[in-house]
Amino acid sequence: MSEPTRIATGDPRYEDFVVRGDNARFAPRPDAFVLVRSTEEVVRAVDDAVRDGKRIAVRSGGHCYEDFVADPAVRVVIDMAAMDRVRFDEARQAFAVEPGVRLLDLYRALYLGWGVTVPGGSSELVAIGGHLLGGGYGPLSRRFGACSDHLYAVEVVVVGADGRARAVVATADPADPNHDLWWAHTGAGGGNFGVVTRYWLRSPGATGGPGDLLPRPPASVLASSTIFPREGLTREALRALVGSHGRWHERNSAPDSRYAGLFSGLVLFAVAPQDDPGIGAILFNHLDDGDDAEELLGRAVAEMTEGVDAPRYDLPFERRPWLSTMEKLARAQDGENGRHKIKSAYLRRGYTDAQIDAIHEHLWGDDHAFSTATISIQSYGCAANAIAPDATAIAQRDSVLRALYLTSWHDPATDEANLDWTRRLYRDVYAATGGVPVPDERNDGCYINFPDVDMADPAWNASGVPWQYLYFKENHPRLQQIKKRWDPLTVFSHALSVQ
Ligand SMILES: Cc1cc2nc3c(=O)[nH]c(=O)nc-3n(C[C@H](O)[C@H](O)[C@H](O)COP(=O)(O)OP(=O)(O)OC[C@H]3O[C@@H](n4cnc5c(N)ncnc54)[C@H](O)[C@@H]3O)c2cc1C
């Protein structure tokens, strides 16, 4: 049996493993990183760590927004970077994908090889390992749902009550005795049940050759960009812009919407990008190209900006092949390595005027921290909502938008100021519901791939609603039962893991 590569403190490679993560706030410093190349090596690495009584964390792409991997209590980090193969598995009639593959590499392999893809996020460097475990959304999610909606089977190294590691395969087949473990891997987040060593991807009910077994993206995409200068976005103008964008999504996000092929992002800037400090907001839209695409896109942009009395610059529509569009979008999103704090929310309806006013007060006030800070309000709904809330671990199945609140900075001395600013912004947006998006007629909790430990802190979550409900809703008790069965010794845990 081959041996995994151990990189312990003092090894010249150690510091390179420390900085491989995306969020400089959380640099892991375990006793050793263990670079694995096969399922057998993962079994060996987990066995060794459990025997030595060392807490384990798993890292695929290193893009976790919280300290789930870098927690000082973690003494062994199992690094999946070298397990990054993508192939078609004839026996299982599904794409076998290893967790270390980065998203753009995965899209290239699936699309250039077979003309298919998964509807994942627009990031170059996030790995499918952590991404799919939390759901994984991107520009194609209104057409095809989340990445995890296309999970057919998963291989996981788990630890039994006897403390021994073993690899098990769990499938979407309800007759599979391990079916519950598959279900737990369809959106409950990483680091909960074991180490994923392989995914098999195939859309539910799909038959035919490899080119029929996963979604086919559009050959090309028509994109629009509208820029709103910062000074023109008064309180009233922002109400109109955010309000119209929200109402458009309320009207056009049913599973059978003719706008299922449209993905929209309205990005509001607190501190504008350095290359253009005059920007207050950018509205971008991507639409599957087709005969009536120009007309449909024109109409959508007009409706999303209806009633906005502010200067604007509409860039000419741009038509690009699909993969090239993903490459462009992903590179724009993978900002510089820095220090980050993220918060998220699902929106069943657009923001209220009171919420938009809170956003304006913080983003346009002079009270902000010294950083880049954005609220990105992105399309959700359509196919993502055509699945029952208990069919997979993703409980949020009737929202029309998802919002992410992201603050980034470089100087560790400003950590507290930036965290405090981000926390106050979010608390004030959700002032009516205890500072968090408590599931009700407007909100539907938070997205576990944008984890936020403040949800477990009564100082910032004054709603009385436990953080588990915000992320997992009614699916949480089932996740707990599965946890008890598959991780009885609680070998895998972090600040927001299923307990
Ligand atoms: C720049 C950036 C852009 C993003 N864009 C999007 C987007 O467009 N859409 C979207 O939905 N999300 C997006 N995300 C969120 C992203 O999906 C999550 O951060 C995801 O968990 C990262 O996965 P990773 O493997 O890169 O990170 P890691 O830090 O390696 O892992 C994240 C979590 O999953 C666990 N984990 C990782 N691999 C395994 C494994 N093999 N087995 C068990 N547990 C594992 C880790 O222990 C950790 O808890 C983005 C994040 C960043 C930083």
TrEMBL record:
<keyword id="KW-0285">Flavoprotein</keyword>
<dbReference type="InterPro" id="IPR006093">
    <property type="entry name" value="Oxy_OxRdtase_FAD_BS"/>
</dbReference>
<dbReference type="GO" id="GO:0071949">
    <property type="term" value="F:FAD binding"/>
</dbReference>
<dbReference type="GO" id="GO:0016491">
    <property type="term" value="F:oxidoreductase activity"/>
</dbReference>
<dbReference type="InterPro" id="IPR050416">
    <property type="entry name" value="FAD-linked_Oxidoreductase"/>
</dbReference>
<dbReference type="InterPro" id="IPR016166">
    <property type="entry name" value="FAD-bd_PCMH"/>
</dbReference>
<feature type="domain" description="FAD-binding PCMH-type">
    <location>
        <begin position="26"/>
        <end position="206"/>
    </location>
</feature>
<keyword id="KW-0274">FAD</keyword>
<comment type="similarity">
    <text>Belongs to the oxygen-dependent FAD-linked oxidoreductase family.</text>
</comment>
<protein>
    <submittedName>
        <fullName>FAD-dependent/BBE domain-containing oxidoreductase</fullName>
    </submittedName>
</protein>
<dbReference type="Pfam" id="PF01565">
    <property type="entry name" value="FAD_binding_4"/>
</dbReference>
<keyword id="KW-0560">Oxidoreductase</keyword>
<dbReference type="InterPro" id="IPR006094">
    <property type="entry name" value="Oxid_FAD_bind_N"/>
</dbReference>
<dbReference type="InterPro" id="IPR012951">
    <property type="entry name" value="BBE"/>
</dbReference>
<dbReference type="InterPro" id="IPR036318">
    <property type="entry name" value="FAD-bd_PCMH-like_sf"/>
</dbReference>
<dbReference type="Pfam" id="PF08031">
    <property type="entry name" value="BBE"/>
</dbReference>
<dbReference type="InterPro" id="IPR016169">
    <property type="entry name" value="FAD-bd_PCMH_sub2"/>
</dbReference>
